[in-house]
Amino acid sequence: MFHIPGFNTIRFFAALAVIITHIENFKRKSGDGNIYYLTRDLGRHGVTIFFVLSGFLITYLLLQELKSEGAISIRKFYIRRVLRVWPLYFLILLLGFYIFPAFWYPDYFINPIEQPNGYLKNLLLHIAILPNLALYLFGPSFCLSVLWSIGIEEQFYLVWPRVINLKPSLKQIMVITLVYLTISFIFLSLGSIYSEVSFFRITYMMMAHDGIIFGSLFAFLLFNRRRYQINVIFSPYAVGISIITPLVMLYCQYTDLLNDSSAFVLDKAVKVCYCILLVNIGFNRFLKNIFTNSLFNWLGKISYGLYMYHPIAIAACIYIYDNLLQINSIFDHLIFYLITITLTITISGFSYEFFEKPLLKLKSKFSVVKSRH
């Protein structure tokens, strides 16, 4: 049974980073006191960690299947993805497009039904698993916006197992990575030059698959670690640099020190650093022990729900506070956090046990390599 315990802990903290950013953003939008200027970029880093982790784990499992079976069952892979991702994804669609718009919708977000010319296009893009494109075309929604990252992953995995089935070498994977980054940078540059033409900027924003690609590249390295000299990844220097670099990125984002080009380069460096940290947490004995905790392991198991349900919990708590309570002090803010996170965990826990878990058991029947991830 393939399992890396520390990864569940990382999943929880990645979800928590996103939740913190969205709590402050929702408070900002609703007119409540907030510190969004301090937390605005935490969520981006949380999603980046999710992408890197996803790319690493899924590629590692695909490589194990390829080694043991000689080929990857594309059909079983897609069935596993559908059973794990789609039920909760389409539940959020139902809530975001039909239930909440009809009965209650936060007034600091645009209700989808108030966009009559865009409602159907918005819905169809989400159904087609293009929520990232829908987000850029129609703007944020209080409970649908989180789906953009699910779209990024599903688009990538529509292609990636077929690439792995071709048994590419590490050199070929590195070429794929370089080509993708080059194309992404070209669209970034064109978007800066022709800012009035939305196509270039939208295309660049859509190309957020690089974190998954970096995670996949490191999965190749670790899976073939007897062939490649990768001991440097586990050195204290590599770990130290990989901790410092994201902190530098956060500081630069907070102070707006970076232009588009420098932000692009540092962003890719940060993703490589997250890969190094994740590999150390998974395979470095010392760090692995630090990140193994039964509570965090469980919270990591329900992290998909934490990520998907937290905007609903935040909006509900803001509604309660704005109508019944007041946020007047630091203590009030702390209580708000406690209530919001507790509500998110409660909803996610019930969802995992009674909605997701039965489907996960069914998913395991289509698993060639048994895994608890």
Note down, in words, how this protein is organized.
The protein has 373 residues and is mainly alpha-helical. Helix content is 76%, strand content 0%. The protein has 16 helices and no strands. Helix 1 packs across helix 14 and helix 3 crosses helix 12. The longest helix has 35 residues. 36% of the residues are buried.
Please tell me what the overall shape is. Answer: globular
Report the sheet-strand fraction. Answer: under 5%
Q: Helix amount, in percent?
A: over 70%
**How far apart lie the N and C ends?**
10 Å
Any chance you could write out the topology, listing elements then pairs?
Layout: H1 5-30, H2 36-39, H3 42-69, H4 74-103, H5 119-127, H6 131-138, H7 147-165, H8 170-193, H9 198-206, H10 210-223, H11 236-255, H12 260-283, H13 285-290, H14 294-301, H15 303-323, H16 330-364
Helix pairs in contact: 1-3, 1-14, 1-15, 3-7, 3-10, 3-12, 4-7, 4-16, 5-6, 6-7, 8-9, 8-10, 10-12, 11-12, 15-16
Question: Gist?
Answer:
The chain is built from 16 helices and no strands. The chain is an all-alpha fold and 373 residues long. It starts with a helix and ends in a 9-residue tail after the last helix.
